[in-house]
Amino acid sequence: MRVLQFWKAVTMDRSDLLERILEVLKPFDVCVIGGVAVNAYSSPVVTEDLDVAIAIRDLPRVEEALTEQFEVHRFPHSLNVSARDSDLRLQIQTDPRYGTFVSRARIRDVMGLRLPIAAPEDVLQGKIWAVQDEGRRPSKRQKDLADISRLIETDPELRKRVPADILARLFPMNPSS
């Protein structure tokens, strides 16, 4: 089974939601962040989420274009996009900190697709912000810690960018690991 077919099976994407969303986003400056972006730089793990950052100037047009075809719910720092026949969850970050990631994105193969993926340093920064967000569920923050660990294992130079308190949580017995 191809990776994309597997991902579509996991997300129960019977409506080709992923392909339809990607088509709508084509004209805009976007990049993948979050767990799928981590998968582009390290050994992949399964996720039902696709997180993207957009150039802030494109946000009103992206929201309008997506609303024409999908269910779109606005939250304080994101737009969540879904469809009835899919468990895939698209989350568009509206936090302006993520908007700068788009200009440094690079095309990478991930989940059987060629997508603009945030640079590894930016993916790491997004995961650091997520771990530091006290409002996130503890289980999500644990996953973010694991993603940071995966990125560091793939590129040990990234470790220099991780705050000491997060490194201590990742390596409680030996912070220099």
What does this protein look like?
It is a single chain. α3 crosses α5 and α5 packs antiparallel against α6 (138-154). The chain has helices at residues 3-10, 17-25, 34-41, 59-67, 120-132, 138-154, 164-170; strands spanning 30-33, 49-54, 71-75, 78-82, 89-93, 106-110, 113-117. The protein is α+β, with helices and mostly antiparallel strands. The protein has a domain at 3-119: Beta Polymerase, domain 2 (2-Layer Sandwich). It has seven helices and seven strands; from the N terminus they run ααβαβαβββββααα. Helix content is 40%, strand content 20%. The strands form two sheets. It has a five-stranded mixed β-sheet. A hairpin with a 6-residue loop joins β4 and β5.
| Order of the strands making up the biggest sheet | 1-2-5-4-3
- Report helical residue fraction: 40-55%
Which CATH architecture of the domain at 3-119 is right? 2-Layer Sandwich
Strand tally = 7
Determine the structural class based on helices, strands and strand pairing.
alpha+beta
Q: How many helix segments?
A: 7
Q: List the secondary-structure elements in sequence, H or E.
A: HHEHEHEEEEEHHH
Distance separating the two termini? 36 Å
State the major sheet.
5 strands, mixed
Supply Rg.
Answer: 16 Å
CATH class of the domain at 3-119: Alpha Beta
User: What is the 3D form?
Assistant: globular
